[in-house]
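In the laboratory, one determines a bound structure by crystallizing the protein with its ligand and collecting diffraction data. In a computational setting the workflow is compressed into a single prediction: the sequence and the ligand go in, and a structural description comes out. We illustrate the idea with threonylcarbamoyladenylate.
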Amino acid sequence: MYQTEIGIDVLKAKQLLEKGELVAIPTETVYGLAGNALDSHAVAKIYEAKNRPQFNPLILHVANQEQLNRYVENVPDDCRKLMEAFSPGPITYLLDKNLHVPDVVTAGSKKVAIRIPNHPLTLQLLNSLRFPLAAPSANPSGYVSPVSAEHVLQGLQGRIPYILNGGKANIGLESTIVGFNNGEVIVHRLGGISIEQIEKVIGKPVKILITHDAPETPGQMKSHYATKKNFIVGDLESLKAAFAEKKVGIISFSTIQSEDTPHVVLSSKGDLAEAASKLFAAMREMDSQNVDLILAEWVPDQGIGRAINDRLRRAIH
Ligand code: TXA
Ligand code: MG
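The predicted complex, in structure-token form:
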């Protein structure tokens, strides 16, 4: 057991990581649970602290393209273009790994998922380290990803020594994962960079290949973003009528809800980026209310709205 501390001491985070300890780190997407990616003991601790299945590989975090080049075999032209446009930022590249990347990080795969996060504290930390950080989202496996240091503490208190506090994550959804195959760009997970943004940069349509139950990205299991309370998504007016005798909590996109019902409006001005940044905190808040179930509605299926709908779909149970 650790006495988990929250603070803004980058040097302390660095020293703990150098000793093989884990530190939760802020990113623009969600908080990560980081360890030295080149130290298999540290990586083993990540799986243990999260209770994460060993077959679900981890994302490697680096400070810049030069560091990224040290861990991958080759970078396709489309990937270079995407890096120029979006990194540092909420996008992860699935590339051929080289010998420096331990198999525990990739769960035995020849591909490594690698990204340059866009958060000043974490970039400062990564720049000061001589190794990349392996980091999944800093939540117990299966629960909603954390977008603040307090969320991390709620899930991992006692399991890690330090949480580097970088405030609220401003994107609020995980990174988009893209792979490359024979000139094709394949999106494996919808996230902070939209399909439209990617297609504009590469000048051709992407292929979307989102698997929920194993192959390319095993972590895409459906129950990945589950609240403890039952979670139902659909037309709010019909859902409210159908569950009129239940105590419900409501997550609406932009419509105002009655004051007597616990609720969160994701963006009263109907802004998808704002809605994305509030979704996970809203799910946690409704989960903590005295309600029997949580009702939510779909958002417009465009831009980052597609990633929001993806997380809503996976939270349903
Ligand atoms: O925004 C993010 O990506 C956050 C922050 C912390 O960087 N990280 C994150 O990690 O969401 P995690 O572990 O919750 O999700 C990583 C996803 C999983 O679905 C995993 O299966 C997939 O990436 N992944 C990682 N390495 C992979 C690999 N070598 N091949 C295929 N999928 C991989
Ligand atoms: Mg996760």
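The longest strand covers residues 91-96. Keep in mind that any predicted model is a hypothesis to be tested, not a measurement.
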